[in-house]
């Protein structure tokens, strides 16, 4: 009888190697190579009678998987109307960003709606979670706490409590008895997640898993973890800012490019319905070097402000610094401005920054960066109420960008009265706001500099024509 040769397969990416190695040569994951038998040919497989017969798709109740709102509008926005029963959601983020605080807030609203929630913590004691719940006013009799790391015990708690929402904080701390590997390892995470996914699909319990991230911001554990769950959310935030953003990376029940905004406070985390006020500074009068823009973060349009400062220096190599912006695009704007707008900056220090910790990387901010640099260079302010939207090419032309109408509508909603956009834009613009279409830098500077603005940009203008 021929000897059966074992195969070695990477648990993270599925790559096969002829012998065991410590690191997968394909994905670079350490300790993910596992030994297994070769797959059985399909011709040798025998059919098995199904436990439940297949039914027509027209006979399935569409309301059985309807989303249940969490009570947090910004979270429901990213999830797509709420939590779907039987779904598994993975919420990943850096330590201290506020993942547990956000989930306690969601559990509070869930319990106040008359539903039962089970919060399983593997990183804290039940007393520690209770203290944080008191600080954020998240104490309710429909909330059950359990400090467990054993997977079988967690499943036993679910059978006793019978919740409609299960939160596991975090999946890296869960240990599946009988599975090889250490806690937090590739094998343990995959086994624990598979069991929790099976629990959700069979019982209809919605499961939210808290996940850790690596140094480069990816979800810790096997790559298959993101394939097993239904929704993957990324919770981001700067330690020096109270603003928190939750982004949808994967969503089987809605859009995967939505963004929710929150603010971290001493009494918990609060949703920010209109984040544009954080990113726009309230000036008493127009100042040189300040220009407003409308950036798209996923499907969300947010008004921000870019400030530029140019200062003459005697240094041989003037300093250039950018905060919240791509430094490469700032350098490109300096070169384009020097070439096509008679704005040499070889003897000046250049500082460009966004307001409120906003991060803008899209090319649609090019025109606002240029106008801020030009305004600071000439020491002439751009009037209040003007927003600039457009990409600047290396030849000095203004190129159109996506979702221009949505950006202009957001600017109008916040009371801005003038929008400078690319000339090639063919979208229908909203009424009640003056729109200047420009094709090059000189036209853009003239249109932005001589705009007459009758009101403050933060007053409601309605639909009055201009």
UniProtKB/TrEMBL annotation:
Residue interval(s) of motif RadA KNRFG motif: 250-254
InterPro entries listed in its UniProt record: AAA+_ATPase, DNA_repair_RadA, Lon_proteolytic, P-loop_NTPase, RecA_ATP-bd, Ribosomal_Su5_D2-typ_SF, Ribsml_uS5_D2-typ_fold_subgr, Rubredoxin_2
RecA family profile domain ranges (all copies): 64-213
Source superkingdom: Bacteria
Record key words, sorted: ATP-binding, DNA damage, DNA repair, DNA-binding, Hydrolase, Metal-binding, Nucleotide-binding, Stress response, Zinc, Zinc-finger
Record has Signal as a keyword: no
Region Lon-protease-like, residue ranges: 349-466
Residues at which ATP binds: 93-100
Function of the protein: Plays a role in repairing double-strand DNA breaks, probably involving stabilizing or processing branched DNA or blocked replication forks.
HAMAP family assigned: RadA_bact
Domain notes: The middle region has homology to RecA with ATPase motifs including the RadA KNRFG motif, while the C-terminus is homologous to Lon protease.
Family: Belongs to the RecA family. RadA subfamily.
PANTHER family linked: DNA REPAIR PROTEIN RADA, DNA REPAIR PROTEIN RADA-LIKE PROTEIN
Name of the protein this chain belongs to: DNA repair protein RadA
